[in-house]
Amino acid sequence: MAHVDTGSGQPHRVVFELPHPDPLLARLLRDECSQFLVEQTASIAFGEEWTETGTGKDAVMHAVLVVTRRGPGELELREVGATSHYDVRVSDDPPGVLPAGTQRLEVPVRLTPSRCDGHSFGEAKKAFMFPVRASLDGGEVRVVIVMPPKPVQDRLIRYAQRACGLGG
């Protein structure tokens, strides 16, 4: 339901009919619940240190994914996924396990640009929404979206532009 103001008179009520069950709403609910459930056990975030090595097409950005205990249970990181703009590599497969009782896990990650066309830099809507797949106590794999802070995002854009030979 929404109230629409057309500029002439009072806003009027509009009701949008949705099919039941609605696949899009079901997926959005599942994704939000998954993130919530994982975050009850541990927070997952990028660390503060970002280091660039190499030059040009051999340039790599190094960081650490930090998993910090919040609640009981084991959390297994199954995959750290790429975005529309950055490929992600980790040393181990799966990337790591935060056993019950352990407070912190650090997973080194290496990022490289996945696209080097100018259009990709202008359309960076989801460039920094890294999907991390994790399971709780060996259960269903759930997805958590991890984003670096805005200053790091700006730095990653400049890095990718240099690595792609587009300036920056």
List the helices and strands and how they pair.
Elements: E1 2-4, E2 12-14, H1 23-41, E3 42-46, E4 51-53, E5 60-69, E6 75-80, E7 86-90, E8 96-98, E9 104-113, H2 118-122, E10 130-136, E11 141-146, H3 150-163
Antiparallel strand pairs: 1-2, 3-5, 4-5, 5-9, 6-8, 6-10, 7-9, 10-11
What would you say this structure looks like, in words?
The chain has 168 residues and is an alpha+beta fold. It is 23% helix and 36% strand. The protein contains three helices and eleven strands; from the N terminus they run E-E-H-E-E-E-E-E-E-E-H-E-E-H. Strands 3, 4, 5, 7 and 9 form a five-stranded antiparallel beta sheet that branches. A hairpin with a 4-residue loop joins strand 10 and strand 11. The radius of gyration is 20 Å and the shape is flat. The N and C termini lie far apart (45 Å). 20% of the residues are buried. The model has no long low-confidence stretch (mean pLDDT 88).
